[in-house]
Design brief:
The complex is a heterodimer of chains A (267) and B (272). Chain A has 267 residues and is of the alpha/beta class. In chain A, 38% of the residues lie in helices and 23% in strands. In chain A, the strands form two sheets. Chain A has a six-stranded mixed beta sheet with strand order 6-7-8-3-9-10, sandwiched between helices. A four-stranded antiparallel beta sheet of chain A has the order 2-1-4-5. In chain A, β9 and β10 form a beta hairpin. The longest helix of chain A has 18 residues. With 272 residues, chain B is an all-alpha fold. Chain B has one domain. Helix content of chain B is 79%, strand content 0%. In chain B, α10 runs antiparallel to α11. The two termini of chain B are 23 Å apart. Classes of the chains: A alpha/beta (267), B mainly alpha (272). At the A-B interface, α2 and α4 of A face α1, α5, α11 and α12 of B. Chain B: It comes from Bradyrhizobium yuanmingense. Chain B: GO terms for molecular function: ABC-type transporter activity. Chain B: This is Transport permease protein.
C-alpha cells in the first residue's frame, strides 16, 4: 500500500523473490518537491548482512523507515519476511526489530524495566531469563537497575541494542549502530552482531557512515546517492570496480562525483 | 503497528505492558505523583470556600448547597481525565519512544486503550483525595449522589477520552509544536458546557452549541439532582449517544492523522 492507498499489480522483485527477508521494488518517496527515495529496487536474502551507505540526505533513513512501515511510500512496494508492508505489518513486526538514533528508550525507567516492557510488547517467553542472557551478552549487569537517562552514550547504545534483540528478531534494522561508541566497545558490538547473525541465521540491514564497520560486517553493500542506488555489490567487487582499496575511498568518490571517472579508469 | 486492526483481536498482554510502562514512570517520579494531587486539592479548597461564602449571603445557593463544589469535582473529572490520557501519550513524545512503539507489535487501538486505563488510574490518584477533602472540609459528599454519579462520571470520562484521542492525533501529526493544544483545548469547552451555571444563561443560539457537548448534560444533570432532587436519565442517555459519535469521530481523526504522519515522515522527527 502506498500513501495514496494504491497497490501495484504488475510483477515485481517482491513477486519473484518471496523468500527474501526484504524485497523492495521501485520504491519512491517524495516529500513536497524532494525525491528522498527515487525508484530503488533490491532484495536481501535471509541470513545476509547488508550495508546501506550514503552521505547525509542520500535516502538511507527514509528507505529503512519505509521498510519498517513508519513512512508510507509515494509508490512502489516493500515486502518483509514475505509480507507486504505496511498492510501486513502485524504479521511481521513481532519477528523484526530495530535500533535508530531517531528514537530513545524512556529515560526514567531502569534498563531492566525498559527491557521488561518491550519484552512484554513482543510477547517474549521466559522474559526474565532472556533479559539475564542479554545482560550477560551485552555486559549490562553493572547498570541494569539504573535509570536509562543516567547512562553514558555508549551504555545507552548497548541498551538500545539489547532492546533490538529482545525478541530474537529474524530481521534486524540498524541505523548507525555503533555511533557514539568508543573503538573498543564498537568493535565488541560488531562481534556480537556477527555472532548473532551466525547463531540465528538473522538478516541484518545496517545504515552506517563507518566504512570499516561495513567492510568488516557486510557481505553486500548498497550505495545510495540523492535517493538512488549508485552501486550494489560485495564490498570487494565495489572496491575493485572503483579501483580503490577501502570503502572509504569509494564513498568519497561517490560523494564527490568522481564515481564515473573512477569506474571508467578501471575499464 | 497496523491501523485499527480490531478484526485481528486486541492483546491484553500488550495493553498490560503499556500500563506497566506508565506505572513504572509514575513510581519513579514523586513530582509527577504530587502534581496529580496538587491541582485537584487546590481547586476544591478554593471553590469550597467560595461556595461557603456565597451560601451565607445568597438564599438560592443556600438551597442549592454543593452545586459549585460538585461542579468543580465533575469538571476535574473531565479535565484531569483528558490530561491523564494526553500526558501519558506526551511522555512517549518527550522520551522519543513513539518510534519504538510504532515498530513493535503494539497496535494503535491497544495503545489508546492503555492510555484510557492510565487516565483512570491518574484520575483516581487525583480525584479520590479531592472528594475526601470536600467531605471533611466542606461536608460535601459527592458519593451521596449515588448511582447518578456513575452516569455523570461515564459521560465525562468518555468525552475526556475523545478529546484526548483527537489531540494525541494532532501531536502525532504535527509534533510537539502542537503540545499546547493538549493543555488548552478542554478550556474551550469550559464556558460552553455550562459547568458553573445553567444552560438557560446562554444566548439561545449558543445553547444549541452547548447541547452538542456531552459534558453539558452531566452538569445540568448534577444541578437537577442537587437543586430539584431529580435524576434526569434522559439527559444521560442523550449524552451517551453524543459521546458514542464523538468517540468514533476521534478514533477516525486519530487514524487519519497517524496516516498523514506516516505520509509526511513526522513519526521520525516528532520534534517541533
Amino acid at each position: 500500500m502506498t500513501e495514496n492507498g494504491k497497490a501495484s499489480s504488475r510483477p515485481t522483485v517482491a513477486d519473484r523473490d518471496s523468500s527474501a527477508a526484504i524485497a523492495v521494488d521501485h520504491l519512491v518517496k517524495v516529500y513536497k518537491q524532494t525525491r528522498a527515495v527515487d525508484d530503488i529496487s533490491f532484495s536481501l536474502p535471509r541470513g545476509s548482512i547488508t550495508g546501506l551507505l550514503g552521505g547525509n540526505g542520500a535516502g538511507k533513513t527514509t528507505t529503512i523507515a519505509m521498510i519498517m512501515g513508519l513512512v508510507l511510500p509515494t509508490s512502489g512496494r516493500v515486502q518483509v519476511l514475505g509480507h507486504e508492508m505496511p498492510d501486513e505489518s502485524a504479521s511481521v513486526l513481532g519477528r523484526m526489530n530495530f535500533e535508530s538514533p531517531y528514537v530513545d528508550m524512556p529515560m526514567r525507567l531502569t534498563v531492566r524495566q525498559n527491557l521488561t516492557v518491550f519484552g512484554k510488547l513482543y510477547a517474549v517467553k521466559n522474559l526474565t531469563e532472556r533479559i539475564a542472557r542479554l545482560a550477560a551478552d551485552l555486559d549490562l549487569g553493572d547498570f541494569i537497575d539504573r535509570a536509562n537517562g543516567k547512562l553514558s552514550a555508549g551504555q545507552k547504545t548497548r541498551v538500545a541494542l539489547a532492546k533490538a534483540l529482545i525478541n530474537q528478531p529474524e530481521l534486524l534494522l540498524l541505523d548507525e549502530p555503533t555511533a557514539s561508541l568508543d573503538p573498543d566497545t564498537a568493535d565488541w558490538v560488531r562481534a556480537h552482531l556477527e555472532r548473532y547473525r551466525r547463531d540465528n541465521n538473522a538478516t541484518i540491514l545496517l545504515a552506517s557512515h563507518n566504512m570499516l564497520e561495513v567492510e568488516r560486517l557486510c557481505d553486500r553493500v548498497i550505495i545510495m546517492k540523492r535517493g538512488r542506488i549508485e552501486d550494489d555489490d560485495t564490498p570487494e567487487a565495489i572496491m575493485a570496480r572503483y579501483n580503490r582499496t577501502t570503502l572509504e575511498e569509494v564513498f568519497l568518490d561517490v560523494a564527490r562525483g568522481r564515481a564515473n571517472g573512477a569506474k571508467e579508469a578501471v575499464r | 503497528m497496523t491501523e485499527l486492526s480490531l478484526h485481528r483481536g486486541i492483546s491484553l498482554h500488550r495493553i498490560g505492558a503499556m500500563i506497566l510502562r506508565y506505572w513504572y514512570l509514575l513510581l519513579s517520579s514523586w513530582p509527577r505523583l504530587l502534581e496529580l494531587l496538587y491541582w485537584p486539592a487546590l481547586q476544591v479548597i478554593t471553590w469550597g470556600f467560595l461556595q461557603y461564602y456565597i451560601a451565607e449571603n445568597a438564599n438560592f445557593f443556600a438551597r442549592a448547597g454543593g452545586t459549585l463544589i460538585g461542579a468543580v469535582i465533575l469538571w476535574d473529572i473531565l479535565f484531569r481525565g483528558q490530561l491523564g490520557f494526553s500526558i501519558s501519550f506526551l511522555e512517549e513524545m518527550w522520551a522519543r519512544n513513539l518510534g519504538n512503539l510504532m515498530m513493535s507489535p503494539l497496535r494503535p487501538i491497544e495503545f489508546l486503550l492503555a492510555l484510557m486505563v492510565m487516565s483512570l488510574i491518574r484520575l483516581a490518584i487525583g480525584i479520590i483525595p479531592m472528594t475526601l477533602l470536600a467531605l471533611f472540609l466542606f461536608h460535601f459528599n459527592i458519593y451521596a449522589l449515588g448511582l447518578p454519579l456513575i452516569a455523570f462520571f461515564c459521560n465525562l470520562i468518555f468525552t475526556s477520552w475523545s478529546v484526548g484521542i483527537f489531540v494525541s492525533g494532532l501531536v502525532v501529526r504535527n509534533g510537539l509544536g502542537a503540545e499546547s493544544i493538549v493543555w488548552t483545548l478542554m478550556f474551550a469547552i469550559l464556558p460552553l458546557a455550562c459547568v458553573y451555571y445553567p444552560v438557560s444563561v446562554l444566548p439561545v443560539w449558543l445553547q444549541y452549541v452547548a447541547w452538542a457537548l456531552p459534558p453539558t448534560y452531566a452538569f445540568e444533570g448534577m444541578r437537577a439532582l442537587l437543586i430539584e432532587q431529580t435524576f434526569r436519565s434522559d439527559l444521560m442517555m442523550e449524552a451517551l449517544l453524543i459521546n458514542a459519535v464523538l468517540l468514533v469521530a476521534s478514533l477516525g481523526a486519530f487514524l487519519a492523522l497517524l496516516r498523514s504522519a506516516k505520509r509526511h515522515g513526522s513519526l521520525l522527527s516528532g520534534g517541533e
